[in-house]
Amino acid sequence: MITVFDDMQRSHAPREFIVSGKPQPIPEIPERIDMLLEGVRRIGGPVVAPKEIFGDTLALVHDRRYIQFLSTLWERWRRIPDAAETPSPNVFALGRASLPPASYPDSVVGQCGWHLGDGSCPVTPKTWEAARASAATAAHGAKLVLGGERAVYALCRPPGHHAAADMAAGFCYFNNAAVAAAVFREAGRRAAILDIDVHHGNGTEAIFYDRADVLTVSIHAHPRRFYPFFWGYPEERGRGDGEGFNLNLPLERGTTIKPYREALGTALSRIADFAPDVLVLAAGLDIAVDDPFKGFAIQTPEFGVIGRDIAALTLPMLIVQEGGYPSPHLGGNLASLLEGLLA
Ligand code: ZN
Questions:
Q1: What is the pLDDT of residue 178?
Q2: What are the Cα distances from residue 165, in Å, to 14, 62, 195, 202, 261?
Q3: pLDDT digit string, tens, across residues 89-133
Q4: Start-end of H helices in 123-175
Q5: Contact 122, 14 (CB under 8 A)
Q6: Any idea where the domains of the chain sit in the sequence?
Q7: Is 12 labeled as catalytic in the residue annotation?
Q8: Which of the chain's ends, N or C, has fewer CB atoms near its CB within 10 Å?
Q9: pLDDT in tens, 152-201
């Protein structure tokens, strides 16, 4: 299996994010890459670098204003006298129905409140470059699948599934899986996105919420008491043309393989009904029992079971790396999943 990987992704190296109102060490660190590459080595196959991604490809899913913001934020933030080192919002453009529509400000502080959705998307000097490289990795993987590869692994980091069209959040800046799905759509292929990260893929859901031509399905820990809290509920089914083309399958904390496979079966039969040409698997490995987020309780060999279940769809597939945080088994969990997918 071909792996797509760009070393530029190491250059985004944040130190902290905000948890319970307090800065804490961030688990989304460049060292994840080496753990994931160890899993790739166990499977074998060539590792190729992506081609550069251009604004037009990012703009298939992201607002041009947001792309511009991210590309200039670090430099603009530096010009604020006596500002914090890391750009972060202290005002928030809340989109609630009880408020009049918000307007877009010129101030970089105001724009942070518009585009930085929460306390877990720290921007560093190289975030723009790394996030672009991550999106390029997914887009290049999609092109390889369009070229006839049956399964391609895109080692994307930072991850993408919490990023919406104009918003970073949850360690995510550009929505890599959505960019890949859009590349498939541009080529006239119907894509379904199956998101198995332990967190709901709220950015991906939002990007395709009004569309019937990309099916989005997410299995995740119930957001009542788990990030991203406000989305991921079963009643979110899509809107307008997109009604019925989003499926959320929240499960209880601590879910083990048996109930997990039941939900996966529901997801896979919905995908089979949709009859896509290609599957984008948003592969979060943080469903692992020893992941620091402690959402689900999936063991290393069970990743292979999940992979085999998904492989039974017999669809060409792009596997896009999402979450999955430092633990002794991160590489092994990836290898187990990929082995199952290739079975
Ligand atoms: Zn996650």
A1: 98
A2: 22, 4, 17, 11, 31
A3: 889 988 788 999 999 999 999 999 999 999 999 999 999 999 999
A4: 127-146
A5: yes
A6: 2-64+126-342
A7: no
A8: C
A9: 999 999 999 999 999 999 999 999 999 999 999 999 999 999 999 999 99
Question: Ligand 1 centroid vs 324 CA: distance in angstroms?
Answer: 6
CB 333 within 8 A of CB 197: no
Angle between helix 127-146 and helix 64-78 axes, rounded to 10 deg: 150
For residue 74 the two structure tokens come to 């670090």
**Per-residue confidence (pLDDT) for residue 54, from 0 to 100:** 92
Ion ligand 1 neighbours, Cβ < 5 Å:
197, 199, 284, 286, 323
Percentage of the chain surpassing pLDDT 90? 94
Structure tokens at 271: 């995908």
Q: How far is the centre of ligand 1, averaged over its atoms, from the C-alpha of 205 (Å)?
A: 14
pLDDT of res. 97: 85
Domain 2-64+126-342: assigned CATH number: 3.40.800.20
Distance 190 CA to ligand 1 centre (A): 25
Residue 151 C-alpha to ligand 1 middle, in angstroms? 22
pLDDT of amino acid 96: 83
Q: Which residues contact 296 (CB under 8 A, 6 or more apart)?
A: 198, 221, 251, 253, 254, 255, 256, 260, 287, 288, 289
Asked if the model's pLDDT at residue 37 lies above 90, the reply is: yes
Arithmetic mean of pLDDT, 200-228: 98
Distance 223 CA to ligand 1 centre (A): 12
Judge whether 74 and 128 are in contact, CB under 8 Å. Answer: yes
| CA-to-CA separations, 113 to 79, 83, 116, 199, in angstroms, rounded | 17, 15, 6, 23
CA dihedral 255, 256, 257, 261 (to 10 degrees): -30
